[in-house]
Structures are given as C-alpha cells and as structure tokens.
TrEMBL record:
Keyword Metal-binding set for record: yes
GO molecular function terms listed in the Swiss-Prot or TrEMBL record: D-ribulose-phosphate 3-epimerase activity
Protein name: Ribulose-phosphate 3-epimerase
Binding site for a divalent metal cation: H31, D33, H64, D173
Enzyme class: isomerase
Pathway field: Carbohydrate degradation
Amino acid sequence: MALQISPSILSADFARLAEEAKAVEGADWLHVDVMDNHFVPNLTLGVPVVEALGKATDTPLDCHLMIEDPDRWAPQYVEAGAGSVTFHAEAAAAPVRLAREIRAKGARASMALKPATPIDPFEDLLPELDMVLVMTVEPGFGGQAFLDIMLPKIRRTRELISKHGLEMWLQVDGGVSASTIERCAEAGADVFVAGSAVYGADDPAKAVRELRDLAQGATSAARRAADGPTTAR
C-alpha cells in the first residue's frame, strides 16, 4: 500500500482549526488527539469538535482516543464522522468487542500501545484490527523527542502482521519528523503521524509531501536490501 501521512492537529492553532485542516488537504488523514486528563495528563477536545472538523474538511479524520473507558466513548467518534478510531490497549476492557463495534459502524478500528506495552500479548487480536499504532513517545503531549528504543517494537509488530498475512496498517506517532521518519519506515511503519514537523513548517502542505517522499525512499531502500543483491548476467 502507499505510505500515508496523518498531520496531528495537536500542533495546530486551535483557534483556527478549520483553516489548519485546509492547510494540509493533501494529507491522507487528519490526526485528532482526544485526551481526557485522566488516561493522559492533558485535556484537548471531544465529540463536538470532531463533528465540526468533519464538516470543515474533506480529509478523513483519524481519531486517537487517549481516554479512559473507550468501550463507552469510541463508537460516538464514529458517529461524529471519524473514518478511523484508535483506542488504547491499556484502557479498553473488551478490545475485540470494541473493534468489531467500530467496524460495524463503518470506521477503521485501530489499537494503540504505549511505549512500555509489548505487542506480543495482543498477537491473537490483530485480525480484528485495521491498524496498530506504536507510540514512539509517551502519550499526552506534542513536541516530544522520538524514542529510538521503539524501533525494535515497530519491527516486531510488522513481523507479526506479515506472519498472519494481514492487510493492516502500522502507524507511528510521536516525534516523527524529517530526521526520524526514515527510521520508522525502514522498521516497517506505513502510516506516520506528524505534528510540529508539519504545523511548525512555513508550508504545511509541502512538509507533508516531503515527509511522504522521505518515507517512500526509505521503504524502497529497505525492500531492496531485503531482496538482496542481484546477479548481473
């Protein structure tokens, strides 16, 4: 599949969200961080803002729920217009049931893992999901430095996806920028959340294109390396 860039509005100007959404309309998704000041130590926005954003942009919404009790709240984000809804493995009481409910309502179902949460215990759940999000910072705040120690976890997640022959996406979120996106792509990620790297740029749309090009180049190089040297005849 084509690599995808999902700019995070956590780094946008909240007083101008409609304009900020339009500034990245060449992106594949618009990443919306929902925080409740309980699961993570920050408070952002909720269902009404997601619903308003959905009316203000044609870019599909990728909602990342960093909240307690996603089993109760996640379906409401689908109803508000989200095309993809991510819940945290650490917060969901019944992740399989929740993923099926999200899918049944018409959105892609995704599960996120904090940096300290391994992927292996959730291997059997992968067929129920459309995407796995490996957090490359501790969730809660934008602008954090990328954690290189997450690269093996990204690789392991890609191995498990390939092992089961699944057509699912592997997203990374946290510190993704021009200096880190290639490492993420080489490790196997194919959906990249970028906040300050996009909204901190003079031209956010151009930043999206440049990030996609960097990821594509790194992915192509990794595939060539995996295929090994070719023998000239």
